[in-house]
Design brief:
This protein has helices at 2-13, 20-31, 38-47, 54-66, 109-115, and strands spanning 36-37, 70-74, 80-84, 92-96, 102-105, 130-133. The protein is an alpha+beta fold and 139 residues long.
Length: 139
Amino acid sequence: MKKEISLVQTLRSQGHRMTAARQALLGILEGSDRPLSVEELRTHLAQMRIRVNKTTIYRELVFLKSQEVLREVELGDERKRYELVSDKAHHHHMVCNNCKSIEDVVVDEALERRWMPQPRSFRVNNHLLEFFGLCEQCQ
């Protein structure tokens, strides 16, 4: 949880309030090995006996995204998921179409640059690349 403490301290030092909900969301996301949906976040909060309405969760996610603490990920099922922007390498995801497991995958940076369109009139700020198929267990 060192990352959570670091994020909490960073946000506090920038003058932001650290509510129980905000701290809990950061802790949940830090402890997760995959991006989480709002529904999954609500379940975790309920298990921790932290009562937060859905609107508050969305408001916190918007705030954390605006602070570049979170990134939003869509994995092909029309549900947004969230993960911390971390110190680990830039990565994408592999999603099993059967069991819905999610794994991080790092793509070689040089290869990624070759894929990216670079018309002179367009500057890429961000991108998402996700892979869908069957995990080893579902094959």
